[in-house]
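Budget justification, computational time. The allocation requested in the original proposal was used primarily to generate structure tokens for proteins on the priority list. As evidence of use, we reproduce two of the resulting records. The first is shown immediately below.
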Amino acid sequence: MMMGMSFGRRHNWKGGMMKHILLALLLLFGMTGVVTADDYELHLLRTAAETGNMKAQYDLALMYYTGQGVPQDYQQAVRWYTKAAEAGNMKAQHNLALMYDNGQGVPQDYQQAVRWYAKAAEAGNTKAQHNLAAMYFEGKGIPQDSVLAHVWANLAASQGQEDMVKKRDAIATFMTPQQIAEAQKLAREWKPVK
């Protein structure tokens, strides 16, 4: 069934970049009944990514990271996650931080990991809040700070990261009552950055 492919090739969607992205994703993940195609669907997604579409940049990065539809390539994943992260995509910010944290596609760099975890955490990404709490507690890429570790653990716990309740409480065992009170106050006052 090549209807989806021929339709996409015959029509020029003026101003319809999202249609191109949707078609590319449908084709890439086999949701149109098209069994095989050449690199057309990847071309659509790459074109959208290269023209600055943040969603396409994130999707392309994820494809390169996982090897879904393209050969796995961590350097390309870093390239596209960086573009999406710089445009404000908090999932891309978190995934880019993980790549710096683990040295995937880039040299391991805890300071860059903290930078990107912080951007995603400040936007409300609970996984980034979890990881940022660990970085502060361990002093990886940033000076050790139990108060800020507690703040980020508390925020992640309050947004459904159940394992963070125990971690937050464990962090508190290294803190004075005044530090705990300060951390709780900071967590109550926190608002996501948009």
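The second record produced under the same allocation is shown here.
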Amino acid sequence: MAQVRRLRAERALAEKQLQRERAALQAESERASLLRSEQTSAAESLSLEQQALDEARGRVEALSAEAAALAAQVESASGEIGPTERLLAEHAALKRAQADFKKECAAELKRLQQERRRQTEESTDEADVSDQEAELSRLLEAESARLIALKQQLAQRSREAGALQRRVDERPSRAELMQFERRYRELYRQLASKSEETKKYFSSFNALEEERGYLHKEVSLINSIHDNFAKAGAAPKDKLVESIEGLVQSVQVSLEKVQQRLRDDLRSKDVLQQQYDEMVDKQRKYYKLVREFQEEAQKLDQTFPP
């Protein structure tokens, strides 16, 4: 059970570490996405400003062409004083406007160059971010492989723990063992009682059968004596004596058989008594060992509670 708890703790720790790494990777990915969006917007802004600069240059060139045309008109119309002065005034105004516009274009160009340098620096930062993303991707792949290996190891440990748990569950608990023991004792007492009862029936049957045989022999003997006495007058005396001696010998043989059976029963009784004493001694030792085992089990439960 301690091994199962340790495996579960290792699994929880690995999952927490993986979640932290995933959160860090997601934060870096969001930062990279934000930098990409900023770079995209800056590139679009730079493109728009470049277009505006091109348009301004086009307007400057158009104004220059218009000023040249006006100068040509002034030279061609030297005879007309009024229109010439008006054209000269317009030319001067156009020159001033051209100068102001050039200043604006120069300022805009300077601003665009600064913006371009900033975009270049950000591109460098983006390259660093790309390197960081590659490094994070590599770390993510390594951690993913490590996580897969840990999951496989955890699955193997879980299978081993499951097998151990099944083996533990297959073994009966102390309460079940005690219940089995009580049930076995009850069954043993029932079987012993039934066996003793059956033996008594057999003994009674054998005794009654022997008694019936003896009574039958006694009746036969009495009938034989009665018949012999009835024939005593006609038969010789020696035959009567021989008949009676034969009956006595038959009774003597039966008596010896009964005495031999009694001696055999006494020997069997002594053997059974010795076996009974040995079984009582073993039972006493068994109860002593069971009591010691229960005491040790209680001490173990107190020392290492579940």
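A brief technical remark on that second record: The chain has a mean pLDDT of 75.
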